[in-house]
Amino acid sequence: xxxxxxxxxxxxxxxxxDLLGAVRAKLGLVPNMTRAMANSPAVLRAYLxxxxxxxxxxxxxxxxxxxxxxxxxxxxxxxxxxxxxxxGGMLKLAADDLANARRATARDARTAAILAFARKLVVExxxxxxxxxxxxxxxxxxxxxxxxxxGHVAINVFTNLFNSAARTDVDFPVVAPLxxxx
Length: 182
Fold this sequence. Notes:
The chain is mainly α. The protein has helices at residues 14-27, 32-37, 41-55, 61-75, 78-90, 95-102, 109-123, 130-138, 143-166, 178-181.
């Protein structure tokens, strides 16, 4: 049971109504996470603006979803693990690619470097070293792409924290964390 009420878009008022309407217009549905965030329109507005800004960055949507998966797995966020597995499927990512991302690996060296770096950012709370940055550059990323990867990790850490604290009711097919699935 969610620790924060899930705001019903049909009964929302003011900014919450407008923001939830924008979510519905973009996605065709209103996920429980955004319904919980609507308790604070400022939080929902910040999340939506951050996501919109990253969408115009140089990390494509598919890679962004793979980053979201490794962050969710590393953080142990059940909601985000389920949501990003479902979204990855909607983006036609192969089941093997989704599973590999959760382990911070990938078929190609560039994506593998991104996912390993994303995991290290989470585990080390941003305290990476020069060799970590060098591995990204060796994989072909430039400084702007590296900054975008950090942004993708940051938004996903935010949603992981939010959903774990709120215990947001999972409204996507549940996915067992790797530790439990093994």
